[in-house]
C-alpha cells in the first residue's frame, strides 16, 4: 500500500505484548527507572518482571530505555532458570529491536522465544509467537515466510477456540495481501474482522484490535483511490483513540487523514492534519511517522507551487528514510523529488532521483514509471542534441560564407563562371538526391526502431503483469491446499470447506487468465488479409454470438449506418467490435441495455463510435483501462480477465488507427468509445 502505511505498519506487533503475565497472572507495579528496580530488595524474578513492564511501556516513547530494560530482564531471568520468564524476555527483546528497525536481531529473539514456548507446550503462546513472527517477516519483506507463519498462528488459535485472536491474525493476513497488491483477497478478511470486533459487548476490551482493523481497512481504500471512504473510516479510528486517550493512535489516524487529503489535493486540510501528525510523531521520536508526515507536507507545498519549502520537507524525509529499512518510503520520496525538479526544468537533478528510484525498486518498478524514465532521458537527450545542432548550423553558416567568397574570387580570376555554375548545379542536384535517400533511410530506421521499442515494452509489460496475475491464483491454491491438508491430516473438518471453495475459485480464475493470455499472444498472428464486406452482416454475426448476454441484459444493439461496405481485415474488426459491444452489455446495470454504433468516414479513415447506457468509466481511469489486466471492478462484481480493451487497442493500432474513451454515452450516462481504422487502398 505504498507509503501511507509507514506509520501504521508497526501496530500489529504492539498489540501482542503480553509479557510475564504467563508466569504470575499479575501486572507488575509500574516503576520508571532501571536503577530503582535493580536497587530494590526484590527477588531476581520480581526485578525481571518489573524490567519487562518498564520495557513494554517505553517501546514507543523511549526505545533506548526499552532495549536496556529488556536486556537486563533477560540477564536476570537466565539466573532464575525460569524458562517461561526467559521466553518472555526474549519476546520483549524482539519487540525492542523491532521498533529500532533491527529486524535481523528481532528474528533471532522471536525464534528463541518460540523454541522455549514450544518446549513448555504452551500452545497459546506458540500461536502468539507465530502471529508476531508473521508480522515481522511481512514487514521485513519476507512475504512467503510471513504468510506461512500467519497460517500456523491462525491454525493454533482455531484449535484453542480463540476467536478474538484468530480475527486479529486475519487482519494481519489481510495486510499481507495488501502488501502483495491482492486487494480482492484482503477486503473480505478486513470486513470479517472489523464486523466481529464491532459486535463485541465490551468495545474497550477490543480497542486495539478494532482500531488496527479500521486503520488498515481505511488504508486499503486509499490504495485503490477511494479517498472519501478512507477518511470516513480514519475519523472512526481517531474517535476511538480520543475516547481511549491514546496519543499514538491519534497520531496514526491524523497522519493518514492528512495523506488522504493530499491525495484529494485539499492543501489546507492536508496541511493541518500533516503538521499535527508531525508534531505528535516527533514527540514519540517515531522516525517512520516523521518521514511520512514530512513527505506529505512536501507534496502539499508542491501542489501550492512553493518549491523551496517542498524541497526542504522532502530532503528531511529522505535523510530519515535513507537511515532506516523502509524501501517503499525511499522510493516514493525520490519520486516526489523527481516530479519537483522536473516541474522546475532541472532535468539533470530530476533524472538523478528517478534513476535512484529505479535502482531501489527494480523488483517493484511499474512499467509506467519505466516509460516516464525513458521519456525523461529522451527529453534530456533532445536538449543536448538541440544545442549541438545549433552549434553545427552556426559552423555551417560560417563555412558557407567562406565558401561563397572563395567561389566568387575563383570565378573572377579564372573566368569560368558558366562552367563552374553548371558544375555547382549538378553537385546540388546530386546532394538533393543524396539527402532524400538519407532521409528515407533515416525514416525507415526510425520506424523500425519504434516498432522494436514498442515490441520490447510490450514484452516487458506482458512478462511482468502475466507473472504477477498468474501467481495470484497459484499462490492462493497452494496456501489453502496446504491449510486443508493439515486439517485433514489431523481429522479436523472445520474450515476445510472454505479452503476448498477458495481453491476452486482460484482454479477457475487461473483457467480464465491462461485462456486470455493465449488469445493475446495470438494477436500478432491474427489474419490481416484485407477484403471488402458489408458491415451490417458482420454486426448480425456478433449479435448471434452475444445472444445469451443480450437476453440476460434485455439488450438491444443498433447500427445507424446501413448498407456500408468497408475494406479492411474482417477478422480483426470483428474481434474489436465484439469486445467493445460485449463490455457495453456486461458493465450495464440498466433494466434495458442499449448499444449504438455510429460510423463516420473522412478522406483517410473510418471512425467508429460505440455508445452505451452502462455504468460508465471514471475520467481518471480512461487511459488506464487499455492496459493489460487493468480492472476497475472486483472479480466478484464483474467477470473477465482485464485483457479485452488491451486486445482492442493492439488490433486498432495494427489497422493504422487509435482508440480512446471520448466521454459519456447515451443520455449523459454510460460510456462512448471511439476508434479509427485506415481502410486498405
In DSSP terms (H or I, runs of 4 or more residues), the helix count works out at 26
Strand tally: 7
Characterize the largest beta sheet: strand count, sense, and whether it forms a barrel.
5 strands, mixed
| Structural Rg | 33 Å
Unreliable runs: 1-30, 363-384
Describe the structure.
This protein is mainly alpha-helical and 681 residues long. It is 69% helix and 6% strand. The protein has helices at 11-14, 21-24, 34-39, 44-58, 63-80, 83-98, 103-119, 123-139, 143-160, 163-179, 183-198, 207-223, 227-243, 247-263, 267-283, 287-303, 307-322, 327-343, 347-360, 367-414, 417-489, 496-521, 535-545, 547-552, 570-586, 644-654, and strands at residues 530-534, 556-559, 565-569, 594-601, 606-612, 659-663, 672-677. The strands form two sheets. It has a five-stranded mixed beta sheet. Strands 1-3 form a two-stranded antiparallel ribbon. It is globular and about 115 Å long. The model is unreliable at 1-30 and 363-384 (pLDDT under 50).
Offer a quick outline of the entry.
With 681 residues, the protein is mainly α. 69% of the residues lie in helices and 6% in strands.
Amino acid at each position: 500500500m505504498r507509503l501511507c502505511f509507514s506509520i501504521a505498519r508497526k501496530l500489529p506487533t504492539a498489540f501482542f505484548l503480553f509479557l510475564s503475565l504467563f508466569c504470575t497472572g499479575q501486572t507488575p507495579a509500574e516503576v520508571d527507572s532501571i536503577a530503582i528496580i535493580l536497587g530494590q530488595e526484590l527477588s531476581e524474578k520480581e526485578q525481571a518482571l518489573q524490567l519487562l513492564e518498564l520495557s513494554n511501556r517505553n517501546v514507543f516513547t523511549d526505545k533506548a530505555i526499552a532495549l536496556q530494560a529488556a536486556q537486563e530482564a533477560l540477564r536476570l531471568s537466565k539466573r532464575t532458570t525460569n524458562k517461561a520468564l526467559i521466553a518472555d524476555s526474549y519476546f520483549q527483546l524482539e519487540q525492542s529491536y523491532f521498533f529500532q528497525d533491527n529486524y535481523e536481531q528481532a528474528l533471532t529473539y522471536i525464534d528463541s522465544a518460540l523454541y522455549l514456548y514450544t518446549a513448555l507446550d504452551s500452545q497459546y503462546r506458540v500461536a502468539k509467537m507465530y502471529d508476531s513472527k508473521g508480522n515481522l517477516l511481512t514487514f521485513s519483506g519476507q512475504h512467503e515466510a510471513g504468510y506461512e507463519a500467519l497460517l500456523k498462528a491462525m491454525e493454533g488459535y482455531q484449535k484453542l477456540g480463540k476467536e478474538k485472536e484468530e480475527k486479529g491474525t486475519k487482519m494481519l493476513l489481510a495486510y499481507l495481501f495488501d502488501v502483495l497488491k491482492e486487494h480482492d483477497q484482503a477486503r473480505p478478511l478486513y470486513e470479517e474482522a472489523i464486523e466481529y470486533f464491532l459486535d463485541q459487548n465490551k468495545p474497550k476490551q477490543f480497542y486495539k484490535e478494532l482500531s488496527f482493523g479500521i486503520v488498515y481497512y481505511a488504508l486499503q481504500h486509499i490504495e485503490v483511490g477511494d479517498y472519501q471512504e478512507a477518511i470516513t473510516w480514519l475519523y472512526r479510528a481517531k474517535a476511538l483513540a480520543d475516547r481511549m486517550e491514546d496519543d499514538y493512535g491519534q497520531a496514526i489516524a491524523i497522519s493518514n487523514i492528512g495523506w488522504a487529503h493530499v491525495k484529494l489535493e485539499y492543501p489546507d486540510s492536508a496541511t493541518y492534519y500533516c503538521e499535527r501528525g508531525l508534531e505528535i510523531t516527533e514527540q514519540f521520536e517515531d522516525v517512520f511517522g516523521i518521514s511520512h508526515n514530512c513527505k506529505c507536507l512536501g507534496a502539499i507545498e508542491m501542489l501550492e507551487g512553493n518549491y523551496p519549502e517542498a524541497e526542504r520537507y522532502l530532503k528531511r524525509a529522505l535523510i530519515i528514510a535513507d537511515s532506516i529499512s523502509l524501501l517503499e518510503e525511499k522510493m516514493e520520496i525520490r519520486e516526489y523529488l523527481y516530479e519537483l525538479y522536473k516541474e522546475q526544468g532541472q532535468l539533470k537533478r530530476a533524472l538523478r532521483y528517478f534513476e535512484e528510484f529505479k535502482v531501489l525498486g527494480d523488483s517493484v518498478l511499474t512499467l509506467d514509471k519505466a516509460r516516464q524514465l525513458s521519456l525523461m532521458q529522451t527529453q534530456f537527450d533532445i536538449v543536448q542534441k538541440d544545442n549541438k545542432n545549433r552549434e553545427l548550423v552556426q559552423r555551417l553558416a560560417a563555412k558557407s560564407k567562406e565558401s561563397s567568397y572563395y567561389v566568387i574570387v575563383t570565378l573572377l580570376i579564372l573566368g569560368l563562371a558558366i562552367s563552374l555554375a553548371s558544375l555547382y548545379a549538378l553537385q546540388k542536384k546530386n546532394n538533393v538526391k543524396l539527402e532524400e535517400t538519407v532521409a528515407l533511410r533515416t525514416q525507415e530506421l526510425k520506424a523500425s526502431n519504434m516498432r522494436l521499442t514498442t515490441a520490447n515494452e510490450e514484452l516487458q509489460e506482458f512478462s511482468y503483469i502475466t507473472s504477477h496475475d498468474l501467481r495470484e491464483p497459484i499462490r492462493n491454491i497452494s496456501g489453502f491446499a496446504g491449510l486443508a491438508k493439515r486439517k485433514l491430516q489431523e481429522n479436523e473438518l472445520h474450515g476445510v470447506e472454505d479452503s476448498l471453495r477458495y481453491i476452486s475459485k482460484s482454479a477457475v480464475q487461473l483457467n480464465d487468465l491462461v485462456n486470455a493470455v493465449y488469445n493475446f499472444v495470438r494477436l500478432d498472428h491474427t489474419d490481416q488479409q484485407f477484403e471488402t464486406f458489408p458491415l451490417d452482416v458482420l454486426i448480425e454475426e456478433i449479435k448471434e454470438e452475444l445472444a445469451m448476454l443480450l437476453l440476460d441484459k434485455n439488450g438491444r444493439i443498433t447500427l445507424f449506418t446501413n448498407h456500408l461496405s468497408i475494406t479492411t481485415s474482417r477478422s480483426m474488426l470483428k474481434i474489436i467490435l465484439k469486445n467493445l459491444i460485449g463490455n457495453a452489455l456486461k458493465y450495464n446495470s440498466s433494466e434495458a441495455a442499449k448499444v449504438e454504433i455510429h460510423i463516420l468516414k473522412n478522406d483517410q479513415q473510418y471512425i467508429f463510435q460505440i455508445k452505451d447506457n452502462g455504468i460508465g468509466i471514471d475520467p481518471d481511469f480512461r487511459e488506464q483501462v487499455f492496459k493489460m489486466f487493468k480492472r476497475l471492478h472486483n472479480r466478484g462484481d464483474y467477470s473477465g480477465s482485464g485483457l479485452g480493451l488491451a486486445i482492442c487497442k493492439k488490433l486498432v493500432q495494427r489497422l493504422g488507427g487509435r482508440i480512446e474513451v471520448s466521454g459519456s454515452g447515451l443520455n449523459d450516462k454510460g460510456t462512448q468509445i471511439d476508434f479509427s481504422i485506415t481502410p486498405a487502398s
